[in-house]
Amino acid sequence: MARARQNGEGSVYKRKSDGLWIGSVTIGWEAGKRRRKTVSGHTAEEVRAKLREVRRHLDKGLPVPDHKTTVDDLLDRWFKDVMSHQVAPNALENYETIAKHHIRPALGRRPLAKLSVAEIDALLSSKRTGNPKAGVKPLSVSTVRRIRAVLGQALAQAQRWDMVPRNVAALSTAPKQTRSEGRTLSPEQARTLLDALRGHRLEALYVTMLGTGLRRGEALGLLWSDVDLKGETLTVNHQLKRERGILVLGDVKTQKSRRAVNLPKTVVEALKVHRNCQRAERLHSGPAWQESGHVFTTMIGTPIDPRNIGRDFASVTEAAGLGHWHPNELRHSALSLMLARGVPIEVVSDVAGHASIRMTADVYGYIMEPQRQAAANALDAVLSSS
């Protein structure tokens, strides 16, 4: 005798063609038409259990599970319908690379509705530890956190599309980020570097980065129209970056990155010499010169590939006896030296173009220890004398 169907449970029957049990239940109405959810199973009870799960989601106002849509399906739709219109091409390429190499291979075929927090934690753990026997190296904490962030953003969009009831990536545990103080040139090392740079073709580029704290892309994206040598200032309006293999002059990272910077005398003098050298190169190149308006160019006037700067700068620092240094460490050194000399952190944050003072404090707060101790000593002097 067949079991009586409970109210709201939906219809359940056995399909003759393959012997599977089929169940369906109304989940709502759309444009005047009934919307139904159909499930299947090998037994009637299995199907009824699935229908009860659908009903529980409906009663709680949650999206009905879709066991056909996979993580790959979500990523495809997210990149096409959302991210392609929200981020710059190079940023989109970075997101797609993370998905291609780290998320899709492990979770791409997994039904979105079945994805669990435990699976995300296992993925992050495997990326962090690697697999030495298989020749898979462990990834850095920042890269693993990036994987979690990309998946979390995709699942947040899935929530907005009513595809999942919760964001399991957001509920996962991110690997702990230990603060790296990074290297900074000491005042003596900075002077050694300046001596080694004298006469170097890109001397003004490195002096500008060290004297202003500009990011590499910002320095290479400078146009002469951005520089006021008489007023001893420059404005950061662009950054040179590579998008899908092509160098482009794009917008700066954030609104705070668009800023004015006062130039030290050392930078002003270096830029004046550089301007004269560039004029001589333009005359020497003749028709081969391609006017770009950039402050720092190749010998025929075209923008300099940021990747080439890394190799060139390392050769300079090694020749100077300082070892291997990266151009990004010039920015870190500039900001660190400013703070060490007592420049207020809010001023340094403004010069750096950081989104907030908190960002500056998180990265460079350790340099403030002597000033914090001076503050404590000043208060102690007041309190002990009373």
Going across the biggest sheet, name each strand in turn. 1-2-3
Low-confidence stretches: 1-8
Approximately how much beta-strand content do the residues carry? 5-15%
Strands, total number: 8
Shape, principal axes of CA atoms: elongated
Number of domains: 3
Q: Based on helices, strands and strand pairing, what is the structural class?
A: mainly alpha
CATH superfamily of the largest domain: Intergrase catalytic core
CATH topology of the largest domain: hpI Integrase, Chain A
Q: What order do the helices and strands follow?
A: EEEHHHHHHHHHEEEEEHHHHHH
Quick check: average pLDDT? 88
Largest sheet: 3 strands, antiparallel
For the CA atoms, what is the radius of gyration?
30 Å
Helical residue percent band: 40-55%
Count, helices:
15
Q: Give the distance, in angstroms, between the N- and C-terminal Cα atoms.
A: 94 Å
CATH class of the largest domain: Mainly Alpha
Secondary-structure arrangement, i.e. CATH architecture of the largest domain? Orthogonal Bundle
List keywords for this structure.
386 residues; DNA polymerase, domain 1; hpI Integrase, Chain A; 8 strands; mainly alpha; three-stranded antiparallel beta sheet; 3 domains
How would you describe this structure to a colleague?
The protein has helices at residues 44-59, 71-86, 89-107, 117-129, 141-160, 168-171, 187-197, 203-212, 216-220, 265-285, 306-319, 328-340, 345-352, 357-364, 369-385; strands at 11-14, 21-30, 33-41, 227-228, 233-236, 239-243, 246-250, 259-262. Helix 4 (117-129) packs antiparallel against helix 5, helix 8 packs across helix 12 and helix 12 (328-340) runs antiparallel to helix 13 (345-352). The chain is built from 15 helices and eight strands. With 386 residues, it is mainly alpha-helical. Strands 1-2-3 form a three-stranded antiparallel β-sheet, with helices on one face. A three-stranded antiparallel β-sheet has the order 4-5-8, with no helix packed on it. A hairpin with a 2-residue loop joins strand 6 and strand 7. It folds into three domains: 11-59; 71-171, Orthogonal Bundle (DNA polymerase, domain 1), CATH 1.10.150.130; 187-370, hpI Integrase, Chain A.
